[in-house]
Amino acid sequence: MMIQILNDDFKTLQQQVTKRQQQTANKPEIEAAVADILAAVRERGDAAVKEYEAKFDQVELDDLKVPQATIDAAYEACEPKLLDALKLAKRNITSYHEKEITHGFIDAEQPGVIRGQKVLPLAAVGLYVPGGTAAYPSTILMSAIPAKLAGVDQVVMVTPPQPKGINPAVLTAAKLAGVDAIYQVGGAQAIAALAYGTEQIPQVDKIMGPGNIFVATAKKQVFGQVDIDMIAGPSEIGIIADAGAEPDQVAADLLSQAEHDRLARPMLVTDSQALATKVAAAIEKRLQTLPREEIARASVDDQGFIAVVANLDQAFTLMNQIAPEHLEIQLPEPMTYLNQIRNAGSVFLGREASEPLGDYVAGPNHILPTAGSARFFSPLGVEAFVKRTQFVQYTKDALSNEKDAITTLARVEGLEGHARAIESRFED
User: Fold this and answer.
1) Which of 351, 369, 388, 390 could form a disulfide with 377 if both were Cys (CB 3.0 to 4.6 A apart)?
2) Are residues 105 and 221 in the same domain?
3) Among candidates 284, 306, 307, which has minimal Cα distance to 296?
């Protein structure tokens, strides 16, 4: 892993990060390919979906929906240790996200005026669960549990089909989380099916969940037809550590994200040259025994970096510029640094708060903003599954008190019809 000694302005490294984020977001050839898939599914429904599944996933499908009997059988056959782990995760995710539930309000403080807001759940949401090189039952819990807490009526899941069937752990997690229906569809065609609806797959109001660049591009293109959570890019982990950090643990945490994807970005920022050197050596040693070594090594070599800065203030300045998906603070009394963090998806405080804790059982969501979007996006939560409707009621006396202000503003904006609508309430 490359070690860089940085000056105060961090300009070179920040330009590299920004360039990577732009490259991840803009792929014209993928945009065009995805647009074709969306159009085909919109026009031909299930037939197009099945053709793309045969082409991309090499699976011939007669029925897109996974039978309930198959889901129940997977749950019943689930290894007790795994089921216990999923139940623990469910309890912690539930106890965390139920604190996010909000309710509407009514304001009747002004005489003759009632104002308020209703908070309503979305009717239907679609959860995209990645397949491919790994199974992610944890993602189902992270997606479906907040949706159910929000009161969503219909939670449907799509996940790429597998030649030997969908991973039983995925089916078990879906049942445990309360998913209402599962469809074995992946890629851009799955996003299209959720956005437009097909003969079998219902149209939803919002689509969420991580996926590859085709999935991310499809979500971007259907936004407006439906809502989406965010445009998720490759995983990232940033660690701020000083000379007292344990090099082998820092290396292990960096590799926990590097093994996700060749484009994942592991980043260490430290004020200790000695720690930087030791972590680089520990990474190499650990890579040699990591089952996903090829993927993790590509991530480390091509995307990762270790930056040595003059002091910890510089470390926080740099990380706030990068806005990483995951940020570990491996410093003494880490809570004292929380106010220095402005941009990060999820923060892990202290030596024992290793990032995989958040991936599985801590409770905070692991569907997080990436590629610098933590500057303006938030982690997935209950609020992502609700909408707000405003309401207002005035008596004639209350309206009389404010009619002149309304008509003045309307005429300044050149909207005479607005003004006359108010004045009509006071005509003889």
Assistant:
1) 369
2) yes
3) 284
Active site residue 325: yes
Which residue positions form the known binding site for Zn(2+)? 257, 260, 359, 418
* Domain final position from 166, 199, 228: 228
> What DSSP string describes 230-258?
----S-EEEEEE-TTS-HHHHHHHHHHHH
- Which among 53, 326, 328, 355 is annotated as catalytic? 326
Domain of 80 in residue numbering reads as: 45-228
3-class secondary structure, 177? helix
Say what the pTM is: 0.90
Same domain for 252 and 121: no
CATH number of residue 173's parent domain = 3.40.50.1980
Please say which residue of 188, 209, 228 terminates a domain. Answer: 228
pLDDT, tens digit (0-9, with 9 covering 90-100), for 227-285: 998 877 789 999 999 999 999 999 999 999 999 889 899 999 999 999 999 999 999 99
Residues belonging to the binding site are 128, 189, 212, 235, 257, 260, 326, 359, 413, 418
Domain annotation covers residue 30: no
- In the three-class reduction of DSSP (H, G, I as helix; E, B as strand; rest coil), residue 358 is classed as helix
3-state SS, residue 90: helix
Residue 295 lies in a domain: yes
Same domain for 217 and 73: yes
Angstrom distance (rounded) from CA 159 to CA 186:
5
> What pLDDT, on a 0 to 100 scale, did the predictor assign at position 132?
61
- Length, in residues, of the chain: 428
DSSP 2-42: -EEE--TT-HHHHHHHHHHHHHHH--HHHHHHHHHHHHHHH
Question: What is the enclosing helix (H) or strand (E) of 394?
Answer: strand 386-394
pLDDT digits (tens, 9 = 90+) for 114-144: 999 999 999 999 999 887 656 789 999 999 9
C-alpha pair distances (Å), 145 with each of 96, 209, 286, 381: 10, 13, 35, 9
Q: In total, how many domains does the chain have?
A: 3
Q: Which of 325, 328, 355, 366 is catalytic?
A: 325
Residue 147 lies in a domain: yes
Annotation marks residue 366 as catalytic: no
Measured CA to CA, the distance from residue 378 to residue 230 in angstroms comes to 9
Binding positions for substrate:
235, 257, 260, 326, 359, 413, 418
Identify whether residues 320 and 291 lie together within a single domain. yes
CA distance 371 to 366: 15
C-alpha–C-alpha distance, residues 76 and 60, integer Å: 27
Residues contributing to the annotated binding site for NAD(+) = 128, 189, 212
